[in-house]
Amino acid sequence: MTINEAQDEIIEEFSELDDWMDRYQLLIDLGEGQEPLPEADRTDDNLIDGCQSRVWLVCEPRDGRLFFRAESDALIVKGIVGLLLRVLSGHTPQEILDADLYFIRETGLTEHLSPTRSNGLLAMIRQIHAYALAYKAKFAE
Questions:
Q1: What is the rounded distance in angstroms from the CA atom of residue 17 to the CA atom of residue 25?
Q2: Which domain holds residue 66?
């Protein structure tokens, strides 16, 4: 599935829900449905700076693609990071760097997240981009 196909799927899921309380519940459900990150991966090295909640992100390169796993101590944030991973995990560093993450805007997340959650979302995206930049250089060697 391409990045844009995954985004379009998320937009469709959100558009089926009229009320923002239902959309928040969808984020919570997504968070609850994620596989927990093993305790061994919940290290300071994997902790994302800039998030009010604790968010750990692990990147595993395989065959020129980046695969991400994540965990948060807040269910809504765990759902948000789950959406990001659904869109970006399994793609090449260049695809990740080139992606216009329009689903954030189109689902209404931009307007409905608190300022601290919005800052956390940006921090997650920055960290994913940092991994993509690092592995792009490494894969080019």
A1: 10
A2: 3-140
Q: Kindly list the catalytic residues.
A: 51
- Indicate the number of domains in the chain: 1
The CATH number given to whatever domain includes residue 88 is 3.90.1010.10
**60 in Cβ contact with 37 (< 8 Å):** no
Global pTM value: 0.92
Partners of residue 91 on adjacent β-strands? 66
Q: Are 12 and 107 in contact (CB under 8 A)?
A: no
Strands 55-62 and 65-72: antiparallel
Instruction: Output the tens digit of pLDDT for each of the chain's 141 residues.
Output: 999 999 999 999 999 998 999 999 999 999 888 889 999 999 999 999 877 789 999 999 999 999 999 999 988 999 999 999 999 999 999 999 999 999 999 999 888 888 888 888 999 999 999 999 999 888 776
Yes or no: say if 86 and 27 are a contact pair by the CB < 8 Å rule. no
